[in-house]
């Protein structure tokens, strides 16, 4: 759970929001160490056995066909292992401005949120769901659908689905990974692509009337942020939800952030891990405070 003095995001209490690193365009920004925003050890959520809708038959012959028309290439054990490995990769990548949480009910569905810190979509907080094919890691690429359609050339204005296939025309096992899909979803907000858009209006405005495009983007960001406190659309205990700052719940965690000290194992690395990040009241604009600011 990510905690700050004005609102908080929660799903599984053992989960943490990732802090921001540098964005894809290469611009530096203030960041907080991931350890500074977390408490306790990372624990991967259990993958329910009933999350796998298909199995591989023991005898040779035609594979069992799943409800959505795809075929299983591997049994449930391999599928569970693959998804667990994928989530471990997501954690290791420390994706900037991205938080993701596998569903409790199905390993084939992940909940996420992207924080955009600057650029045209600055202050945007976009919740999304990743849908993974039941024959993963074969077949098509995972789908990424925003809870509220974002005004963007590559986002379907009705369904909210991001055009992932343009970046992953053919999903290759052991080469493509879900963390790359998440990173791509963040990149599109910093590098606008108008080729073969899912939202033609957004593409035309970006090319012909960038000021009107910016105006619609601001409205879109405000709309998404105005629904942050809405209940999740999917009934799942790991679905991401936001709540206003509650001292009775969050004050202790904030104090632990303030009193966090540099870890002994980091001394020899010269790694700067002190600092704090939270959100200004009445907005989603982040700002930071270092525990040991440089002397003037």
Describe the model.
The protein is α+β, with helices and mostly antiparallel strands. The protein has a domain at 75-227: Ubiquitin Conjugating Enzyme. Helices cover 22% and strands 13% of the residues. It contains 5 helices and 8 strands; from the N terminus they run βαββββαααβαββ. It has helices at 76-93, 178-187, 200-208, 210-226, 247-258; strands spanning 7-10, 98-102, 109-115, 125-131, 143-146, 241-244, 276-279, 286-289. It has a 4-stranded antiparallel sheet. A hairpin with a 6-residue loop joins strand 7 (276-279) and strand 8 (286-289). Helix 3 (200-208) crosses helix 4 (210-226). The longest helix is centred in the N-terminal third of the chain and has 18 residues, at 76-93. It starts with 6 loop residues before the first strand and ends in a 7-residue tail after the last strand. This is UBC core domain-containing protein. Residues 1-66, 261-296 are annotated as: Disordered. InterPro entries: Ub_conjugating_enzyme (IPR050113), UBC (IPR000608), UBQ-conjugating_enzyme/RWD (IPR016135).
């Amino acid at each position: 759970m990510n905690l700050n003095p004005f609102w908080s995001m929660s799903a599984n209490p053992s989960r943490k929001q990732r802090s921001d690193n540098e964005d894809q365009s290469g611009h530096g920004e203030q960041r907080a160490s991931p350890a500074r925003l977390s408490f306790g050890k990372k624990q991967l959520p259990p993958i329910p056995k009933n999350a796998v809708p298909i199995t591989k038959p023991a005898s040779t012959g035609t594979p069992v066909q799943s409800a959505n028309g795809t075929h299983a290439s591997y049994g449930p054990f391999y599928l569970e292992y693959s998804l667990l490995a994928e989530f471990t990769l997501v954690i290791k990548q420390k994706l900037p401005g991205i938080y993701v949480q596998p569903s409790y009910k199905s390993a084939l569905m992940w909940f996420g949120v992207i924080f955009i810190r600057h650029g045209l979509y600055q202050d945007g907080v976009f919740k999304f769901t990743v849908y993974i094919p039941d024959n993963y890691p074969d077949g098509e690429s995972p789908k990424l659908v925003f809870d509220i359609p974002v005004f963007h050339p590559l986002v379907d204005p009705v369904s909210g689905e991001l055009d992932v296939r343009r970046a992953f025309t053919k999903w290759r096992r052991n080469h493509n990974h879900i963390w790359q899909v998440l990173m791509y979803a963040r990149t599109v907000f910093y590098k606008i692509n108008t080729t073969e858009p899912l939202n033609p209006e957004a593409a035309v405005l970006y090319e012909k009337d960038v000021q009107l495009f910016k105006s619609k983007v601001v409205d879109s960001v405000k709309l998404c942020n105005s629904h942050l406190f809405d209940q999740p659309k999917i009934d799942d205990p790991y679905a991401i939800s936001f709540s206003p700052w509650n001292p009775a719940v969050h004050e202790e965690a904030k104090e632990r952030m303030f009193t966090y000290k540099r870890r002994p194992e980091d001394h020899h690395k010269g790694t700067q891990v002190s600092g704090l990040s939270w959100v200004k009241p009445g907005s989603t604009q982040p700002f930071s405070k270092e525990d040991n600011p440089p002397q003037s």
